[in-house]
Amino acid sequence: MKRKVAVFTGTRAEYGLLYWLMKDIQTSARLELQIIVSGMHLSPEFGETWRLIEQDGFDINAKVEMLLSSDTPVGVVKSMGLGTLGFADALDRLRPDVLVVLGDRFEALAIVQAALIMRIPVAHLHGGEITEGAYDDAIRHAISKMAHLHFVAAEPYRRRVIQMGESPERVFNVGAIGLDHLHRSPKMVLDELAESLRFALRSPYLLVTYHPVTLLEENPEQSFIALLDALDKFPEHQIILTYPNADNGGRAIIPLLEAYAQRQPGRVLAIPSLGFRRYLSAVSTAAAVVGNSSSGIIEVPAFGIPTVNIGARQTGRLAADSVLHCEANCAAIERALHQALSDEFAEISKKAVNPYGQGNAAEAIVSVLEHFDGTLHKSFHDLS
Q1: Disulfide engineering: 336 pairs with which of 86, 120, 250, 326, CB 3.0-4.6 Å?
Q2: What is the pLDDT, as a whole number, of residue 115?
Q3: Which pLDDT score, from 0 to 100, does residue 247 have?
Q4: Rounded to the nearest 5 degrees, what angle is found at the Cα of 79, between the Cα atoms of 145 and 141?
């Protein structure tokens, strides 16, 4: 009998990272794929990206509505409550042998706490990392303590998960799952990408994604306006602006983003979601990637493209030499962009070594899942 593996996804970015793992589970002779979709995927406001999952040839086994049209702290907490109720029903119906979750978002915390009480083992991807500027940091560590298998992206993260008391035999350094796209996903050339976007895209352009900083006193609207002001200093560059996540303060950014694009229709494209193929294609031909998304730290360096990482959201992550860190003000962002767009830094970026692996994570994870015995018992591992 095949082991049932439920993969949870709540955001467009997370699904893009999980794609090849889901494909490999789907084709495994020993595993049966189940897909649980929730969060931003089901929201018209964020592009109803669940449709892309089905277009990619996957069957969605459960859709759990949870996202309130509010990004206040109270609204997010209420969304988590709705999610937990829905996940309890979905997990009870599907009865997976293991639940796979990635990362550190509140949607993932909601389903993992349901799985814990329902005695469903959890496999956690990208544990052990640090992002000091977001409450995602604490969520990630909390999920690690509720998980039974750990697939981390780098050796320092493996040591950190073990430091948290997890058994070394259950912590696997497989590299970043998103890097599998490097070898396995075809990219669009610039003309093809422009046609897909219905936007007269040309070189050079900047790919920009900015999410709210949820833990520190960094006002998302002020920081985003500073970013837009800095982008105005580079009028020769076109800009692709993607929507923020549904975090505290995220919806306040969207009108600013849309108004900026409307003022410069030939230069700026605002889009709720690129989808992972268009996103990675856009990365591969961008002059630089700008913002504070984890993708700029983890995946973008593998393309040899410069990253300008703004503010404190990703503080604590390992980063390649192609990543420039700057404060969330106009002058600092402008300086970082000038450096990132220089010929000298372009050469540095092409030669940078990405600390997040070689792009074969999905195969390694599937091998472990095929042989996992489903044991729920965990003993706290004390460091000697």
Answers
A1: 326
A2: 98
A3: 67
A4: 15
Q: Which bin fits 128, alpha (ψ -120 to 50), beta or left (φ > 0)? A: left
User: pLDDT at position 193, please?
Assistant: 97
The confidence score (pLDDT) of residue 248 equals: 67
What does the alpha-carbon distance between residue 28 and residue 366 come to, in Å, rounded to a whole number? 8
Positions in the chain whose pLDDT score sits under 70 = 214-218, 246-249
Q: Find the radius of gyration of the CA atoms of the chain.
A: 20
The residues near 132 (Cβ < 8 Å, ≥ 6 apart) are 215, 216, 312, 315, 316
352 and 321 Cβ atoms separated by less than 8 Å:
yes
Interval 143-167: pLDDT, tens: 999 999 999 999 999 999 999 999 9
At a CB cut-off of 8 Å and minimum separation 6, what does 19 contact?
56, 181, 185, 276
* CA nearest to 251, candidates 212, 309, 294: 212
pTM for the whole thing?
0.83
Cα–Cα dist 149/3, whole Å: 15
| CA 236, 240, 244, 249 torsion-angle sign | positive
Whether the Cβ atoms of residue 267 and residue 44 lie closer than 8 Å to each other: no
Tokens of 271: 């889009």
Task: Name residues whose C-beta falls within 8 Å of residue 89's C-beta, 6 or more positions apart in sequence.
Answer: none
Cα–Cα distances in Å, from 351 out to 170, 305, 369? 34, 10, 35
> Would you state the pLDDT for residue 168?
97
| Beta strand residue intervals within the chain, DSSP E | 3-9, 31-38, 62-64, 98-102, 122-125, 149-152, 171-173, 205-209, 238-242, 268-271, 288-291, 307-310, 323-326
Q: How many CA atoms lie within 13 Å of 150's alpha carbon, on the beta-carbon side?
A: 33
Residue with tokens 């998302």: 220
pLDDT value of position 125: 98
Q: For CA atoms 141, 312, 75, 69, give the dihedral sign.
A: negative
CA distance 246 to 84: 17
